[in-house]
Amino acid sequence: MANATLTISSKNYSSWCLRGWLLCRMAGLEFEEVEVSLEDAATRAELLLLSPSFLVPCLTHEGVRVWDTLAIGEYLAEWRPQAGLLPTDRAARAHCRAICGEMHSGFYNLRSALPMNLKARHPRFKVWAGAQADIERIGTIWRECFRAYGGPYLFGALSMADAMYAPVCTRFLTYDVKLDAAAVAYCRTIMSWPAMAEWVEAAKAEPAELEELDVEF
Ligand SMILES: N[C@@H](CCC(=O)N[C@@H](CS)C(=O)NCC(=O)O)C(=O)O
Question: For residues 106, 112, 116 and 119, what is the CA-based torsion angle, rounded to 10 degrees?
């Protein structure tokens, strides 16, 4: 039986839950998913017991509770270093942490204007300038990684950074964002990562979407 649980919310909308879940899979952690709906007061009260920040994902493993995605990634990297969540080379590791941090604390315009919605498709979506600047910065981050580490993932092999940027790939597909060939290939690689494909399939099977949830949460 798994001695870990990961509390998550909607698979269709929750980009942070997707990241946390991919990190657990990447680390080879056996875990049970606890899915909570964030809509009603009773569930929110229950969630407070599971996650002190009210936010998901929240990992509980061998009595340790970790309620922030970046902290979950760091925890799992310490728990199983051989899983390669962080690169072994010190400079590459610092680079990886820097771009994960940039995703965690930035790209507000992209995240609010192009919320993750795995079931949706918006052909010829008009991207406003603020979000376009975020898209360009992400393109630069990715290009620098491909140049330095040779792909197909950001640091050559799968790492924490791919989990952090995976929801960006889904947004680029959902909102029909124009990308260069290397970024298109990277998005394709991420979407065909078996764990990612499994999450997307489960998201598509979720009950009908609620209109008011068509925002980042
Ligand atoms: N910084 C947090 C962000 C987590 C977050 O914002 N989670 C959203 C779901 S994607 C949430 O729990 N929202 C609670 C709510 O909307 O009530 C992390 O890295 O885990």
Answer: -170
